[in-house]
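INFO  loader      accepted 1 record
INFO  loader      residues=205
INFO  predictor   begin
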Amino acid sequence: MPKIEKIIFATKNKGKVREISEILKFMDIPVLTMEEAGIEVEIVENGKSFEENALIKAKSVHAVSGGLVLADDSGLEIDYLNKEPGIYSARYMGENTSYHEKNMNLIGRLEGVPDDKRTARFVCAVAAVFPDGTHKVVRATMEGRIGYKEAGSNGFGYDPIFILPKYGVTTAELAPEVKNQESHRGKALRLMGKEIMDYEDSDNK
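INFO  predictor   done
INFO  writer      dumping C-alpha cells
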C-alpha cells in the first residue's frame, strides 16, 4: 500500500483542523476537514464514552471516503459533579447555549466548594480508521481544577474556567504553543501520530 498522503479529520471546524495540523506537523501529512475533502455525511454520536463517539465519527467518514480518517471526542469531567458534563460537554444545557452561560452555571454549582474538591480534567479520545479498515483509539487527559471566574481569551469552550495548576492560570490564558504541548488533544494526537507511523512502517516491511 502506498504512503499515506493525506488525513481526513471528521470535522467541519477549520479552526480545529488548523490546531490539529500544527500538533501533527512532525508527520508532514496534510490534514483536511470533511468539507475540504468533499465529504457530506450525517453522523449520529450515540456512544456511551469518548472513545465510542470518536470511533463512530471516524467510521462514518471512512465509509464514504476510504483512506485514513481521524476523529476526536473530548469533554470536561468535574469530579465534584459526578464527572459532569462528560460526554455531553458540547450539548450541556443545550447545543445553542453559549459557553459563557455554561461556564457560569458550572461555577455556580461549585459555589462554596474548596480548591481541593474542584478537581477536573479535560479528556480527549482520538480514533483512526486506516485505509485497510482496521482501527485504533487512544485517550489522553489534562488534569486541573475549576476556577471561580472566567479568565483568558486564547481558548474556547470551557478553557476560561479550567486552571492548570502547573502554570496557575486557565488554559485560555496560555500561549497556543504551550496549550498544544499540555492539552489533552495535543497529547492524544501525538500518541495517534506514533500509531500512524507504526502503521506505515508495518505496511512497508
